[in-house]
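Write out this protein's structure.
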Amino acid sequence: MSSETERGILKTLNDLNEKVDIIYKHQCLLADYSATPRDYGTGYLMTEIEAHTLGFIADQYGITATQLALETNRTKGAVSQLISKLESKGLVKRVNEPDNKRIYRIYLTEEGKRACEIHRAYDRANMLDMINKMLLECTPEEIESFFKVLSCRNRIFEKNYEEKLGKK
């Protein structure tokens, strides 16, 4: 193999390593952000995970824990703990199915609806701020491409998750 070919291979590997490192750092920062409790304007602390779970419940009135686990790529146990936490904050309520007491449906309380709307407004303002900051270094087209690539990446991960579930 020529030294020029070897240099080309090394450059490709270094470029891939840099891309992997960028994605990993983004995931670490995002995981930390998602797990950090903050007051979104409700007067109490919630993590982003809790706040977005309220959104899933709001959008799918009467969702079951099993459905919520599938929608959020979490285990049933993790969802159960999350629902218990939200219930203790007075944000959701569980209602058992009349014909099957093992199945319960999850609903937002009035306070849960309020918290969900406040969080969604917070997210919109935060996203607008983030886009304005990105516009200092990126074109609008690059930002749109970023969201297109993220959507594509999400679909790939969702397909992998579905395949993983199918193998169990």
